[in-house]
Amino acid sequence: MSKFALNASGYHYAKFDGLNRYTGELLKTFLKSGIRDFKIYTSDSFLFENYIQNISKIPFKNIDRNDFKNNLLRLIWHQTLLPISLKKRSISLFYSPVPEGMLFPVCPQIITVHDILPVLFPETYPRIKYYFQYILPQLLKVSQAIITTSENTKKDIDSRFKLKNKPIYVVYQGYRKEIFNIKKPADRASILQHYNLQNFILCVGETRPYKNIRRLIEAFARANVPDLDLAIVGKLNKLDRSIVDYPKAFGIVDRVKFLGFVPDNALADLYRTAIAFVFPSLYEGFGIPPLEAMACGCPVVVSHAASIPEVCNNAAEYVDPLNVDSIAAGIYRVATDANARSTLRQRGLDRVKAFSYRQMFAEILEILREYEPN
């Protein structure tokens, strides 16, 4: 490739959110690919110390943080110091794996848009919604092409932003195969004891309203499967901290366990141990947790909504996320039918073969090469 630059201004090796993981896996693959003529714009100290030959260090220590001050600083940096540096280094192509970039590009620019959640659920994103309403539409217009992670998000971008003849490429995400797999058997007794669980179904995701956890809790109560717990992994979102008291309304407070943040290795063990994984989300740009669950041999019950059917295909029990009885029926069927679980487990293991970070990298690289100047 010609000399190009990769945007990692919001990346930090110790953050675990989805966008950070996506950027981190891309960085890892680029750095191992043998491609030499590229620069990574970052303030991450780990990258700077270990890959200095590929790094263009951003002179702002905490620019990766997602708070008002640093989000604004990142926006300003993209419009000022970044273009100056790109011109100075004779960069021929700029790629951003997140929806941030230059409003007046000094070279061809390609960005990835993972979802438009702040447009669809503005109450959940009280600050970021303004960026998606006023900045992102202009950014999309001036970019040479857009990459997204699902056909559903491509459709959403088309319908919401009215882009004319703008190339939008769908590149499915991968997952961390070295962690989420069935190679390592889980110590079931130890996991149940550690998390104070009996047999359980698992849900993974921060408790943002669109994750639909309240309907899940009510549906779990209605399913009324004896000797079954509901384990919810993910930090409590400030918009709904009272959700921890919601099980009291259904008399199941001792059977719903909020586990908070769980590291990946322990999460993989929870997937391997759970009776089933339940994902009742109203919207996802892609949806990594069902992929991780299937890779660990865990049968999945998911919403028939947004991009989720693209990911799960025929390897899931589908429910209507707006209908509590539908969610309850899905939970009951999979939790009580061993044959259904066995079928879903095998279909899930077959389905995940279609997803990998290596494939994602190869497809993105092919797109970047298409737009590099002659």
Explain the overall architecture.
There is one protein chain. Helix 1 (18-32) crosses helix 15, helix 9 (213-223) packs across helix 13 and helix 11 crosses helix 14 (338-351). It is built from 15 helices and 13 strands. The protein is of the alpha/beta class and 374 residues long. Helix 2 (45-50) links the parallel strand 2 and strand 3. It folds into two domains: 4-174 and 356-371, 3-Layer(aba) Sandwich (Rossmann fold); 188-354, Rossmann fold (3-Layer(aba) Sandwich), CATH 3.40.50. The protein has helices at residues 18-32, 45-50, 68-79, 81-88, 117-120, 128-142, 151-161, 188-194, 213-223, 264-273, 288-295, 308-312, 324-336, 338-351, 357-371; strands at residues 4-7, 38-42, 55-57, 93-96, 109-113, 145-148, 168-170, 200-204, 229-233, 256-260, 276-279, 300-303, 316-319. The chain has a seven-stranded parallel beta sheet. Strands 10-9-8-11-12-13 form a six-stranded parallel beta sheet, with helices on both faces.
SSE sequence, one letter per element: EHEHEHHEEHHEHEHEHEEHEHEHEHHH
Helix content: 40-55%
Q: How much of the residues is beta strand, in percent? A: 5-15%
User: CATH superfamily name of the largest domain?
Assistant: Glycogen Phosphorylase B
Strand order of the largest sheet: 3-2-1-4-5-6-7
CATH topology of the largest domain: Rossmann fold
Question: Treating each run of at least 4 consecutive H or I residues as one helix, how many helices?
Answer: 15
